Every structure is written in C-alpha cells, then in structure tokens.
Amino acid sequence: MAKNHIIYNGYSPWMFNLKKAEGSYLWTQDDQKLIDFSSGWNVTNLGWNNSEIAEAVVAQAKTNVYAPMWTADAAQNTYAAQLTAALPKELDVVARATGGTEANEMALKMARAYTGRSKIIGFKDSYHGQSFGDLSLGYLPSYVEDIAPLVPDFIQLDYPSPDRTGTSAAESLDIFTTQLEDVLKKGDVAAILTEAGIITGWGSVSITAPGFLTVIRKMSEKYGTLLIVDEVGTGFSRCGSLFAIQTEAVTPDIITLAKGIANGAGVIGAVVTTSNIGDATYDKAKLTSTFGWTPLACAAAQKTLEIHIRDKMWEKAKADGDYALATLRQLLAGNPLVTDIRGKGMELGIALTNNAGSQVVENARKNGLHLAETGDTLQLMPPLTIERNVLAEGIDILATTIAAIRI
Ligand code: PMP
Questions:
Q1: What angle (nearest 5°) sits at the alpha carbon of residue 265, between those of residues 264 and 270?
Q2: Ligand 1 atom closest to the CA of 202, numbered from 1
Q3: Cα distance between residue 130 and residue 150, in whole Å
Q4: In 86-189, which residue ranges form alpha helices assigned H by DSSP?
Q5: Which of 95, 125, 98, 99 shows the shortest CA–CA distance to 113?
Q6: Which of 1-5, 8-12, 145-149, 151-155 has the lowest average pLDDT?
Q7: What value does the mean pLDDT take over residues 175-185?
Q8: Which of 194, 232, 239 to mutate to test the pocket of ligand 1 (most atoms within 8 A of CB)?
Q9: How far is CA 219 from CA 89, 222, 224, in A?
C-alpha cells in the first residue's frame, strides 16, 4: 500500500515513521520509544547510528565520494584488502555490488560463466533478493504467480532442517544427501546457492542439520559445481562467529555479503571469490555496477569490519544469544501459542500457531518493543551491541505480550 507517497511492500503491518534511532532504541513519529529487536533485519548489528561509523563517513565525504567502475580509489582498495583478509585465504578478490540482491545475481552469473553449465540449485522457501534470478532460487510458486515466469533451469531442494522436515537431524541430512547427489551427478549444475545453515531470509530462522555445509561442500567439489554461500543475513557476527561458514569451517567458491556490512551507513554489497574464478569470469559475467562500492560506503564498511574484529562482536553475540534462548524457553514454556524456539547467536526464531506473528508484533509495539515477523514465526535480531538489561527488558515485554494473547 502507499502512504506519504511511498509504496510499501505487501507485508508491512508494523510500518511507522522513524523519528530517531540510536543504539538499541527506535523512536516513532509520536515519540514512542521502542526497544529494537530487528536491527532493520540484520543491518544495524553494531547499533543504530553508530557514532564511530558516522565519523568515518563524514571524513570520507570530505575526501572523495565517488569512483567510476572502471577505476578504483583508496577507500575501495583498502576495504577489498581488509574484507578478503577476514575471510578464508582462497577468497581473495571482490566484485563490487550495491546490496544483497545484486551480489547474488552477480554470483549466479559468475557460476554459469565459469562452469559453462546452466542449472542452479536453490532451496524452497528461502530468500536471496528480488531480481528474477534471485527469486528463482527459493520462492514458492504461490508467491510469484503474478510475475511468472521466472528463470529456467533452477532446481529447488528442501533444506534438511528438522523444523521443516519433521524428522531427526541425521535422517534429514541422509535424505538430503541422496537427493543432492541425484541432481549433481548429471554433471550439468553450475552452482548451489544457499545460506550458511541458518536460514535468516524469509523469516523462518530454520537451522539445518549439523553437517549440512560439509555435505554440500564435498558434493559440489566432487561434481564440479560451485558452492555459493549467501551470508547477507548471517554475516558480521550475527550468528556467533564473524561469518557463519566458520560453523563448519567450510570455504565456499563464492560468498555474498550485504546488510550488516556497513551497519546501514552505506549502500554496499560484496561478492568475494577466488582470483581464479574472478579472472575467468569478470568479462563474461559483466560485473558492472555504477554505484557498487562508493568510497562513502567503503568508509562505512571499513569502520564496521574494524569494530567487529576489534571488539570480537561475535563473542558477545554468542553469549547474549545463549542467554536469550534459555530465557525465552523458560518464560514461554507451556505457552500454547509457541511451538518452537530456536536460533544461533543473536538470530532467534519463535514459531507460533494460528499465524499469530502480526498480532504479537502489533501488541509488542504498544508495549514498547519493535519486532519482525513472517506470519508463523517471530524473527528476533537485536543489535549485537544491546546492553544485557535492555535485552532482558525486551524479552520480558515479549513474553508478557505473548502470554496475554488469546487466539
Ligand atoms: N539474501 C538474504 C539472506 C537476505 O535476507 C536478503 C534481504 N532480506 C537478501 C539476500 C537481499 O538483500 P538486499 O535486500 O540487500 O538486496
């Protein structure tokens, strides 16, 4: 719907004008102060309007704000070196994008260009962006029937997540491994594109069976298929490590990043790959983007990564996440509305019956807490800098809100 000349997307029951945002708090146009449990969907991981990042952007604005795509400038070179140094050593070159959608689209094109194959494996009910290619990876047909057809040669598998398959982790992984090999062994799959075993896009906070990343890495290598891991949501300390691929120490062929990359202070996405793949595809895949990696955005991204590493942000995310998960499980035990509470680091999900998500979001907002939901799941993504007492207060509001709902 449109409001104040802006077209919102279809699922924004919580839309309101932001008057101010700082640290772990948001203020509405009516001066209501809200604890934020969304980080703008995994963007402001270092707190809203982080002052150190703001200062870096201001300094860069006085130096140089733009470099055309057939050049590079110091801010871009510095960030490319810093980002690749934070990733496995094989991933040593970047393509410059403006966000997650574009980064994933570039990665898909690189995979087709590199392998000369056309098929791509994605996962059902996952989210990787709004381009036709990204939509073809994971959208359910019912979501996209009004804009069909999507791109041909995309194959969608089911994630081996016990919360989705309804079977044990071991059984889910076994079934998945057989299905995957059946598809890969034909030798015509260019790439598998997946999140890093914690499904953050599309709201379900689904966690795949342990071993998932290891299986797809081994299988993709065996059959000459590239592995692309989308860390747009999981990256930058969100899940208890700087990047979620560290969970199983897996090195993909391509990793895509956006969202938390600049803490919201710059429009930027990244495709990081091996120099071998970069060299072989830069021309064939046409990796151009007029606004990819503006020096302003790079200044924000540099400072963001520097703070994550300096403060070992992932350690706090892990400790706070463990605390939040245990507290939520205790406070919500036996509540008939709640069917599951799961998560990794500070990416937490509460599965609800009766599609109660938007009702909880509305009521929580009245009680001073801002949340994100997708129908049957609340997705909790507090800023990682949140103070422990504020986190506890937010959890309390959430538990009280859920307990008061009668459906
Ligand atoms: N991948 C994942 C996992 C995402 O959650 C999102 C955004 N929600 C995207 C890609 C797309 O990123 P962007 O909105 O920056 O295009």
A1: 70
A2: 5
A3: 11
A4: 100-115, 132-138, 141-144, 162-165, 169-184
A5: 95
A6: 8-12
A7: 98
A8: 232
A9: 21, 5, 9
